[in-house]
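Marked as duplicate of an earlier ticket. Keeping the data here for the record.
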Amino acid sequence: MISVYKPQTLIELAIAESVLEANNIPYYVHNRGYGGLYPGIQLDLLNVRTIMVPPSAADAAREVLSHYLKDEPGLVTNRERSVWHVLRMLAEAACGAWIVPRVGSVKRETT
């Protein structure tokens, strides 16, 4: 499976799914349910929704999606850049080491 599109909103996801379905292009949405479970830091393999298609359908899927998902004013989300938003992003980045567990960092108690 090849990643062809990462929708920013649920509306974009619904449109992309309907366009692919209408053109009989097989697809899979990675993190469909889990991606919207909790807000917070967006990590590609953890909680970002990604539309994936088989390698044989990748070019057709990209072409079809590019026609329907252009930068339309109604679909583009308004990026918030307030002071609160910047402070929240900094706090999430500072807590990132605490949120994401490290592989092999299990501490063993010695008795």
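See parent ticket for discussion. The chain has one domain: 2-99.
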